[in-house]
């Protein structure tokens, strides 16, 4: 899968300007954190400040305990040692209690934050236009946003907390070291700082590698989906695709592994080099402290606290530097989330006009409408014009790829960037309130959705406000002609459909399509649109569906697409599409009188059905004689 130009241009170049520019997201991050749960946020901040100060208190208590024990052993006074011991135990107990409380608040906050970010992503996707959503670059952005949503915002928060806590620890414990030798503290602190630039370069490489993976990650997910989902399982078995898909999936994962290995090796070598320097510096300063104890400059307790102070200064200095590095890297990742959340929404793409209210749809008019899909050169439809009024039915026929379904997408206002005009009740479709307009349309798309949910959900989604209204749902079921089907299911409306979840009932393709038709019939719509409703239906079921459709669209507007021209006869107007253009239009009788392309296609289909009917009749006549000849079975 090739890397898009958009991906290449978004790769991060290493400059302090680019790095620190990412910190501009912090106000949004803190606003997100505050909106998630203010009380938990404050509690976590307070507990982390306390955790940062307690290590210094432990060092001082340890120093006093050791010095008191040494003094008590020579002077016979053990009371100061017992007091110091009690203080040390008390401080450690307080530290443990703070840890328990902080852990509770952190887990609760992380769960709430993760949920909130994921909901924001779903809300954003819901508000985007179909044109944007179908763009491959947008899908890659969504992949990155979803990949970071669960933990990046919280990881930034915890890193900030860790840095705050480490800074408090550094200066509280460092004060002990500074009181002895100020330069020793500076020496230990500066060495980790020197590693900043090297690790920053590694972090940039890691981000760019992961950034470029989005397309391949989506491909690997899709390959896994093909092998592990029931809707593709049959073909995978029959065509013996399992090994091929598994190897292709494995190749992608092995590529990820090789990239990760290169990055891990580079990071490990860099860490090793700086650790050697760091440990050497600490060993030198500890040696000086031991020497000072031998000559009587400091007490044994002071030596112990100095050694602990040196190691704590070293570890907290490293933690601060690594925390800042991780923040820089995580800021780059969080940018992907905010870039997606900042994408234009469907309503904001349109002209800023006050949307017109819509009560009843009386008419639809296409005036010289042309449209091309994003990232394509050829028009999907060109100069399409027709008018529909209340009580009329329109059939759109033509070969595959002639633009039939594109008209449906434009009619339902899923795409807005077309040329020409689409007018509803004489007003431009751009002037209408989208939600109000779409609420008056009942549609069955060619690629209708199989919701792996209950019958109630599958049908009730056509009008969510009536989802709990059994009477309305059963009426839609009756209109779709599947009353017996639903009544025969184990839990009727509450039966789970599909095989993704336990106790689900799998349906045939035709039954799923009738469920989708019932979903469209849930609405008391002004326009009903059926896009290839007969694709999964046998002729008898198709006839029944169109009879119901004809009754339903009485005094409304009906639009349907069908390859079976026998169904088109019920329409008041038929338009024949070829290469995105209307080549013939009129009633069935008018088009037959024209004796053009439609008439030729109709006669061809009619002769095919007649031949099939004669073949079936001959088979029926032949079957009894075959049974008699074989003596039955």
UniProtKB/TrEMBL annotation:
The chain crosses the membrane at residues 40-61, 81-98, 156-176, 182-200, 276-296. It is a multi-pass membrane protein. InterPro entries: AAA+_ATPase (IPR003593), ABC1_TM_dom (IPR011527), ABC1_TM_sf (IPR036640), ABC_transporter-like_ATP-bd (IPR003439), ABC_transporter-like_CS (IPR017871), P-loop_NTPase (IPR027417), Type_1_exporter (IPR039421). The keyword Transferase does not apply. Pfam families: ABC_tran (PF00005). Its main location: membrane. The keyword Transmembrane helix applies. One of its GO terms (molecular function) is ABC-type oligopeptide transporter activity. Residues 42-322 form the ABC transmembrane type-1 domain. One of its GO terms (cellular component) is plasma membrane. It comes from the Bacteria. The lineage of its organism: Bacteria, Bacillati, Bacillota, Bacilli, Bacillales. Keywords: ATP-binding, Cell membrane, Membrane, Nucleotide-binding, Transmembrane, Transmembrane helix, Transport. Gene3D superfamilies: ABC transporter type 1, transmembrane domain, P-loop containing nucleotide triphosphate hydrolases. This is ABC transporter ATP-binding protein. It is found in: Cell membrane. Residues 364-604 form the ABC transporter domain.
């Amino acid at each position: 899968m090739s890397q898009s130009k958009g991906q290449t241009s978004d790769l991060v170049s290493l400059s302090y300007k680019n790095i620190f520019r990412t910190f501009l997201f912090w106000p949004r991050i803190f606003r997100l954190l505050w909106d998630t749960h203010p009380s938990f946020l404050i509690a976590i901040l307070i507990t982390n400040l306390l955790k940062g100060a307690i290590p210094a208190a432990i060092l001082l208590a340890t120093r006093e305990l050791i010095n008191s024990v040494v003094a008590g052993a020579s002077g016979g006074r053990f009371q100061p040692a017992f007091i110091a011991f009690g203080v040390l135990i008390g401080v450690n107990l307080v530290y443990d209690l703070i840890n328990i409380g902080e852990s509770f608040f952190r887990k609760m906050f992380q769960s709430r934050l993760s949920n909130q970010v994921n909901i924001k992503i779903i809300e954003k996707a819901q508000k985007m236009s179909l044109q944007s959503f179908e763009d491959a670059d947008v899908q890659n952005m969504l992949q990155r946003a979803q990949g970071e949503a669960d933990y990046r915002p919280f990881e930034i928060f915890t890193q900030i907390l860790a840095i705050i806590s480490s800074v408090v620890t550094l200066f509280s414990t460092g004060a002990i070291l500074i009181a002895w030798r100020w330069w020793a503290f500076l020496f230990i602190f500066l060495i980790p700082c020197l590693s900043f630039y090297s690790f920053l370069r590694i972090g940039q490489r890691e981000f760019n590698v992961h950034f470029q993976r989005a397309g391949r990650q989506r491909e690997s997910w899709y390959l896994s989906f093909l092998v592990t989902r029931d809707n593709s399982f049959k073909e995978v078995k029959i065509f013996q695709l399992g090994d091929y898909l598994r190897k292709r999936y494995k190749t992608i994962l092995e590529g990820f592994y090789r990239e990760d290995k290169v990055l891990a090796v580079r990071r490990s070598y860099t860490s090793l080099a700086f650790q050697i320097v760091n440990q050497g510096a600490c060993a030198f300063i500890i040696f000086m402290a031991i020497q000072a104890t031998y000559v009587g400059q400091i007490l044994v307790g002071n030596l112990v606290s100095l050694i602990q102070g040196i190691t704590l200064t070293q570890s907290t200095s490293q933690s601060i530097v690594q925390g800042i590095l991780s923040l820089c890297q995580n800021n780059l990742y969080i940018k992907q989330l905010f870039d997606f959340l900042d994408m234009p929404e469907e309503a904001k793409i349109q002209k800023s006009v006050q949307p017109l209210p819509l009560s009843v749809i009386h008419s639809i008019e296409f005036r010289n409408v042309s449209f091309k899909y994003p990232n394509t050169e050829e028009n999907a439809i060109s100069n399409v014009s027709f008018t529909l009024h209340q009580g009329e039915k329109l059939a759109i026929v033509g070969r595959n790829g002639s633009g039939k379904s594109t008209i449906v997408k434009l009619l339902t206002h899923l795409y807005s960037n077309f040329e020409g005009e689409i007018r509803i009740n004489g007003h431009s479709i751009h002037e209408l309130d989208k939600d109000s307009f779409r609420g008056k349309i009942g549609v069955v798309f060619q690629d209708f959705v199989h919701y792996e949910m209950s019958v109630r959900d599958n049908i009730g989604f056509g009008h969510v406000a009536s989802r709990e209204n059994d009477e309305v749902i059963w009426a839609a079921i009756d209109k779709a002609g599947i009353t017996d089907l639903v009544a025969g299911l184990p839990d009727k409306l509450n039966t789970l459909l599909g095989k993704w979840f336990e106790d689900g009932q799998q349906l045939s393709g035709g039954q799923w399509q009738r469920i989708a038709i019932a979903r469209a019939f849930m609405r008391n719509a002004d326009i009903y649109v059926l896009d290839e409703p007969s694709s999964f239906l046998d002729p008898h079921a198709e006839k029944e569906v169109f009879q119901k459709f004809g009754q339903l669209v009485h005094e409304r507007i009906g639009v349907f697409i069908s390859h079976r021209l026998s169904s088109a006869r019920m329409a008041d107007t038929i338009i024949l599409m070829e290469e995105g253009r209307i080549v013939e239009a009129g009633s069935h009788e008018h088009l037959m009188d024209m004796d053009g392309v439609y008439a030729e296609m109709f006669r061809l289909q009619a002769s095919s059905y007649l031949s099939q009917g004669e073949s079936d009749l001959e088979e029926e006549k032949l079957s009894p004689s075959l049974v008699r000849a074989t003596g039955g079975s």
